[in-house]
Amino acid sequence: MPSIKPSELTAEQRSLDAHVRQLMAGLPAPFTSTDPDGALIGPFPVMLRFPGLARPLLEWFTAGTGASVLPARVREVAILTTGSRYAAAYELYSHSRVALDVGLPEDIIEGLVAGQRPAGMTAEETVAHDVAARLHSGAPLPGALYRAGVRAFGDSGMAELVFLVAQYAAISAILNAYDVPLPPDGD
Asked: Which Gene3D superfamilies match (predicted)?
């Protein structure tokens, strides 16, 4: 689905475009999110075409990131684990860069992108990986793993982790449904 030039957006799309740009401005974004015309890329052209469906999804994301209790590295481990399960190319591209920016070592990022459980992660990162991987297996989360998550992150942090995995599963599904391509600088 091609990007939409800012000059070609409808009023409803312009409002959503402005909202997305405001959200992106507050996040570390060491990845390409616009094309040479300044149009949003990645999942955003899809969202702009369906603003009634996209707004609630973006509000859900905002609720989960506003008062995050999870460390940035833990969040990126969960996001990359989710993206790898879906083989969502743009998700893996963008969040590999974010993960590097927040201090995850390159070998761990490469392992997560490859769908592995890399050695060298912290105990918290390992719990985040295991929770995300198990949630994508189609089976219930084992009690022992849930309790490990609560010990590592508290009740609120564990809930945030579960919702984060669900959010990025949704974004990964959208990226795959519309076969969203990588930008020219994508690896």
From this structure: AhpD-like
